[in-house]
Amino acid sequence: MGLKARAAKQAAQTLRKRGLVLSREFGSDMPPETVETIKLVRPYTMTTVQRIEAVIDGSIAAGVYVIVDWHAHNLHQAEAVAFFSELAKKYGDKPNVIYELFNEPEKDETWPQVKEYATAVLQAIRAHDPDNVVIVGSPEWDQRIDLVAADPLQGQINVMYSVHFYADTHR
Questions:
Q1: Are 35 and 64 contacting, i.e. CB atoms less than 8 angstroms apart?
Q2: Smallest Cα–Cα separation from 114: which of 87, 140, 88, 132?
Q3: pTM attached to this predicted model
Q4: pLDDT tens string for the chain (171 positions)?
Q5: Rounded CA gap, 76 and 72, in Å?
Q6: How far is the C-alpha of 76 from the C-alpha of 108, rounded, in Å?
Q7: From CA 75, how far away is CA 15, in angstroms rounded?
Q8: CA-CA distance, 1 to 114, in Å (whole number)?
Q9: Rounded CA gap, 157 and 138, in Å?
């Protein structure tokens, strides 16, 4: 068994265990087929991509959904388009993969900027994957869903918008 196959098998086993543990900890009868998140922080390298693919492969093998979270602190459209295009090309036929295009756009990114970015990245994904779920953040650390609701993306399917609530931070 090659290194990547071993890593995928190990990831699948770990995810199953974590799912069972989480289900028991919270008194849930939810099966372990839940969601795993990969937090992608720039800069990413081929080693990072190989690790991400191992977790995705393990998640698919375990029957778990995986959110690939582009966790950047500024818009990096060209890099995101290239990354998500390759990811969609490889995994677009697997419903387990959920794409999070930009987690928590900060206060400096306006909704028109985030919307333009999301439209470009979505176009790259949809060229290879017409229907997997895509998560789009909103300005000010995912708190300004009102701006998104007033001017949502048009002509898209399976798009979710992320909202984060902070009781007394991120103002």
A1: yes
A2: 140
A3: 0.75
A4: 454 555 555 655 655 555 444 444 444 444 444 444 445 555 556 667 777 888 888 888 878 788 888 877 788 899 899 989 999 999 999 998 999 998 888 888 899 999 999 999 999 999 999 999 999 989 888 888 999 999 999 999 999 998 877 776 656
A5: 8
A6: 14
A7: 31
A8: 43
A9: 18
Q: Closest Cα partner for 82 from 42, 111, 114, 51?
A: 42
| Contact yes or no for 101/122 (Cβ under 8 A) | yes
Query: What are the tokens at 18?
Result: 């974590």
Task: Please state, in angstroms and rounded to a whole number, the distance separating the CA atoms of residues 79 and 31.
Answer: 36
Structure tokens at 158: 């399976």
How many angstroms separate the CA atoms of 37 and 162, rounded? Answer: 14
Answer for the pair 159, 153: CB distance below 8 angstroms, yes or no: yes
DSSP state of 93: T
